[in-house]
Amino acid sequence: MKNQSYQADLCVVGGGMSGLCCAIAAARHGIKVVLVQDRPVLGGNASGEIRMWICGAHGKDNREGGIIEEIFLENFYQNPSLKYPIWDSVLYEKAMAEKNLTLLLNTSCLDATMDGNRIVSIKAWQSNAETFHTVSATYFADCSGDSILAPLTGANYMYGREAKSDFGETIPPDTADQKTMGMSCLFQIRETDHKVKFTPPTWAYKYESDADLPYKDHDKENNFWWIELGGEWDCIHDTDRCRDELLKICYGVWDHMKNHGDHGVDNWELDWIGFLPGKRESRRYVGKYTVTQNDVEAEGRFDDIVAYAGWSMDDHFPEGFYYTKGHPTIYHPAPQPWGLPLRCMISDNIQNLVFAGRNISVTHAALSSSRVMATCAILGQALGTAVAQAICHGCAVEEVDIPTLQQTLMADDCYIPWHTRKVPCLTQKARCSAEVVRNGFDRGEENCWTGVCGDVIEYKFDSDTDVREIRLVFDSDLNRNYQNMPCNYPLVQTKFKLPKTLVCEYRIEGISENGSTVVLQVHDNHQRFVRHTVDWRVKTVRFVPISTHGCEKFRVFDFEIG
User: Fold this and answer.
1) Looking at residue 111, which CATH number applies to its domain?
2) Where in the sequence is the domain holding 508, given as residue range(s)?
3) Each residue of 283-298: pLDDT tens digit?
4) How far is CA 305 from CA 23, 302, 352, 410, in A?
5) Per DSSP, which regions of 488-553 are E strands?
6) Domain tally for the chain?
7) Predicted pLDDT at 220
8) Stretch 17-22: mean pLDDT, rounded?
9) 199: CB partners within 8 A, 6+ apart
10) C or N: which end of the chain has fewer Cβ atoms within 10 Å?
């Protein structure tokens, strides 16, 4: 057996969307990161192994920005046919591109060394390389979903549903229990140009009529999220037991659709079935603050807000597939958006343990809104940024300057509700031909500059001035209504391309007092948020849009210089 050791500022355990965004954000802000992922691919429930599309906050202009939007747009650019192996490679590429990030795939965390209430290191096993990895770090971020570091470190955690009286909530049961939302194995189907027969395995369940599938929509457009079990079992230790049962149900449902009644799928075939269940709930850490249903309904206007949610309080019944009294979930209303504080991502009893994703410090009721993956992703980016700020300033993560953290996140295109991003002094100092591009708001129709061919945005100083950075935010259509990846494959597939509203080609001109010009030319932009580093001394800086990805007009939320 081989042994490998690492010394890092931050060790992230878990490579789902929260862990990936946490690791990338921390690495980009200059600290050394090791990301430990127990699967061969990144993305967690969104990966090619599970294939759940990424959901987030409802509501106009509430789509999550930052790293998660960057990943979406990169996928549309590289992967217009939306193939899952390419999606997995896009996630992999994002991690591998960071020089400060060491990625360990197929590596399972199995032990932790403690010094009192502080984690010294974790030990992990990489089965395909027969290697033990020991990672020592200043901070450990558990983004594993199941909170693997909780039993290894003695960190306080919650499991199951609280009683109504525990936090003064109305959604929970009267008496606390150990029940959770369950887990799902999904399947995907593909249309062909001919009739396809299906022979189910002998061990599949039989559902001979629609009456056998009450309250379960099973048309071909469904992603079959309701094939769910485990909420009445142990959602960690019974995972394989759940998988075995879920596979019998999956094959049985498809057998029903193909062979029992007319479901419009004669020409469709089973293309893929997941053998790794996607989980909704298990252990939740106890943090410096526990977010409740009441906080959700009050919009979460915390002083230390660093992220937001906006999905309904979507509380699945623990019985899952076997709940027969009605629809398998209740969509309790939630504000769009509502805020999440940094404190709910910091352990209350382990000094250097932090966490992001579905395992943050929330009650079961609040979790039913905060657990979706786009929310988890921006939680991860906020946490990685906070840890980097703590490391760089030599303070504890709970002591970081919150206004500085919030401004850093907003500068990285992470929207924080009810907050305004500060505009660089150099931008404020110059005369600008379009005030809307420097108002500190990077979303909303009222904050968007719209131009046509020949229009430019110009900053002008009284004399030559040093310019080091140019910040741009384009319109990626935050209100688009299609998912990041598909749940089925029709014969004639929509080619999901980049949003037409994105500016594709542009140039930035710097003009000095003596008339000399420097030019930065971009030919194939496919991102919403862009930063350029320059070394110019100029009197005028001009943004000249040239083309979009299909829209007739040019749309820009932000053009700033610093």
Assistant:
1) 3.50.50.60
2) 425-561
3) 999 999 999 999 999 9
4) 20, 5, 20, 12
5) 503-511, 517-522, 529-548
6) 3
7) 85
8) 98
9) none
10) N
